[in-house]
Amino acid sequence: MPYHVDRRDFMKLAGIGGAVFASGLGLPKAAGAAVQQDFFFVQLSDTHWGFAGAPNPEAANTLKRAVAAANALARQPDFIVFTGDLTHTTDDAQERRRRMAEFRDIVSALKVKDVRYIPGEHDASLDRGAAYQEFFGKPNYTFDHKGIHFIALDNVSDPGALIGESQLAWLSADLAQLKRDQPIVVLTHRPLFDLQPDWDWATRDGAKAVELLTPFANVTVFYGHIHQEHHHMTGRIPHHAATSLIFPLPAPGSQPKRAPLAWDPAAPFKGLGFREVAARTSGPALGIEELPLNKG
Amino acid sequence: MSRFAFALGAILVGAAALAAALPGIAQSERVVRITAKKYEFDPPKVTLKRGEPVVLELTTLDRVHGFKLPAFGVRADVAPGEVARVRITPDAAGKFDFLCDSFCGSGHEDMDGEIVVE
């Protein structure tokens, strides 16, 4: 389903410019009437604080650069969401907590104080989310904002990439309270569909979540994990993966291994960035725009 | 019967008896053992014959790992102190990747291997 948006309107809403507005994303149409007021939020993903290696020699500065770029937006978003892998994994539980504390300190410099988090497998899979929950709270939750129902799904605290029957029951109970035309945004880390199973780019029981969401007419999923912009439809549900803030990964199946793309000294921070999502009261409920970090 | 033939026969009989003693493993099935540990499978490459039924026996030396062979639609959790078994019968020649699909640490993304079917 083609998706069109008036770019000038979006720029007026978000107060930004200089980037090409994405199109053909299959975003739900005609849900805008349920949105109570135009607003936008920002999605940042896969910051991997604590990573060190050749794929990003500026790893110690990249998160701070992203925070500065978000703070430099002419208009500030209503809220910011980090869709997982806030920190890079470590077997050392003490070091894991140190990285989470540092991450929290750095993002505390964001002008926007309404910041939401969900875990990635690097944050939560080795201790089933224990350290993550100490710092960032529950890994699955809902909230409502100006007419949109947001659902944060945890598909990483089980190291086997499972949402789990308990959380699926929780999701089902939450959805049971909603009208079928309610605009819904799902925030999660792994893709809920089998994007590239042999690269572990999947959620083992993600199809069960998609099945629960399918009866609803205006569902959009935003996720991370794959370190690149990617758009996919399951039925009428669009799924949008965000770029990373540490290193880009290759396109699904484009090469034998999912090894990070090499850092380009001639174009530092290439392939890194974040995303703005605009919610509107008329026309398509949502519009998205990608903001490269190397232009920040 | 030469001593070599006798010894070989004894080994085969012993192998068949072992297979019979393992629950769910038919005597006609070949057993291939794969050991997992952070962050590798041993052996990382397994060669099989097309049409030959095989049981992959999976164990781990450290923590829980996953074994996933997407091309065959099979996976298993590999837990310490247990033996996980996956049964396959390759019906086409080729190379097929397997991987750990239970997040196990900093080298998880590189923990994979290959099955070659001849």
Overview of this structure, please?
The complex is a heterodimer of chains A (296) and B (118). Chain A has 296 residues and is an alpha/beta fold. Chain A has 7 helices and 11 strands. Helix content of chain A is 22%, strand content 20%. In chain A, the strands form 2 sheets. A 6-stranded mixed beta sheet of chain A has the order 4-5-6-7-9-8, with no helix packed on it. A 5-stranded mixed beta sheet of chain A has the order 3-2-1-10-11, with helices on one face. Mean pLDDT of chain A is 89; it is low at 1-26. Chain B has one helix spanning 3-21; strands at 30-37, 40-42, 45-48, 54-60, 65-69, 74-78, 84-88, 94-99, 112-117. In chain B, the strands form 3 sheets. A 4-stranded mixed beta sheet of chain B has the order 2-1-4-7, with no helix packed on it. In chain B, strands 3-9-8 form a 3-stranded mixed beta sheet, with no helix packed on it. Chain B is α/β, with parallel strands linked by helices and 118 residues long. At the A-B interface, loops of A face loops of B.
Helix and strand arrangement:
The complex is a heterodimer of chains A (296) and B (118).
Chain A: H1 7-14, E1 39-44, H2 59-71, E2 79-83, H3 93-107, E3 115-118, H4 121-124, H5 130-136, E4 141-145, E5 148-152, H6 165-175, E6 184-187, H7 206-213, E7 219-223, E8 230-234, E9 237-241, E10 273-279, E11 286-292
Parallel strand pairs in A: 1-2, 2-3, 5-6, 6-7, 7-9
Antiparallel strand pairs in A: 1-10, 4-5, 8-9, 10-11
Chain B: H1 3-21, E1 30-37, E2 40-42, E3 45-48, E4 54-60, E5 65-69, E6 74-78, E7 84-88, E8 94-99, E9 112-117
Parallel strand pairs in B: 1-4, 3-9
Antiparallel strand pairs in B: 1-2, 4-7, 5-6, 8-9
